[in-house]
């Protein structure tokens, strides 16, 4: 899927190939929302993650999408973390956020239904 962020997607991979130490704000429940990401970016954070978003709820409800995923043009590079129990749901959720993010992370460390 082509989106308007090909250049930012390639630049995020370039960041890892440059051999420099990266400052990454990992996903934190209830804390990694836009306001917190904006704050850590003021302190030169290189890459930020969203909090974990349950992909099924995200796809089912506009209210969940509006509540769980907010961003702006300065919130890049951004990785969106999803919890999903089937590949199609994860892929569908990833397609929704693709134009507004630089990658998707599947949470495999937290127990999910």
Automatic annotation (TrEMBL):
Q: Where are the transmembrane segments?
A: none
Any idea which GO molecular function terms this record carries? tRNA dihydrouridine synthase activity
- Where would I find the DUS-like FMN-binding domain in this sequence? 25-112
- What InterPro entries does this protein's entry cite? Aldolase_TIM, DUS-like_FMN-bd
Q: What is this protein called?
A: Dihydrouridine synthase 4-like (S. cerevisiae)
> Lineage in the entry?
Eukaryota, Metazoa, Chordata, Craniata, Vertebrata
